[in-house]
Amino acid sequence: MTRTTIQKINQIGVPVKDLARAIQFYETQLELPIMFNTDSMAFFDCKGLRLMLSLPEKEEFAYASSVLYFEVADIQQAYADFQSRGIVFSGPPHCVVKNGPAETWMAFFVDTEDNTHALTSNRVAS
């Protein structure tokens, strides 16, 4: 018997309180391309991974999402650029882990729906 294996994550759902406000944030400030939306959901393309914003169907689903980590090439440049778009960060980019010559840097922010997300970037230690 063949066991089923997960191939990849193809969609991440983020609960929102105000869909129009959330669409504005993800489309304008994060500049993610919107695929389509309905009265209760909006779908964005993040390089092949679909991000779904949705009004919770039941109260039990009305909570902040998991942290989404958006990869960028240059975290310092992205940090400055996103700040200029009005995104407020909890602090500047910082190294969260060193693995030999490689470093992983992150900068955390909150969207309009109180979901915490981060910009992340890997680079060679200087």
UniProtKB/TrEMBL annotation:
Q: Which InterPro entries does the entry mention?
A: Glyas_Bleomycin-R_OHBP_Dase, Glyas_Fos-R_dOase_dom, VOC_core
The domain of life for this entry's organism is Bacteria
- All copies of the VOC domain together span 8-122
Return the SUPFAM superfamilies for the record. Glyoxalase/Bleomycin resistance protein/Dihydroxybiphenyl dioxygenase
Membrane-crossing segments per the record: none
Pfam families noted in UniProt: Glyoxalase
Q: What is this protein called?
A: VOC family protein
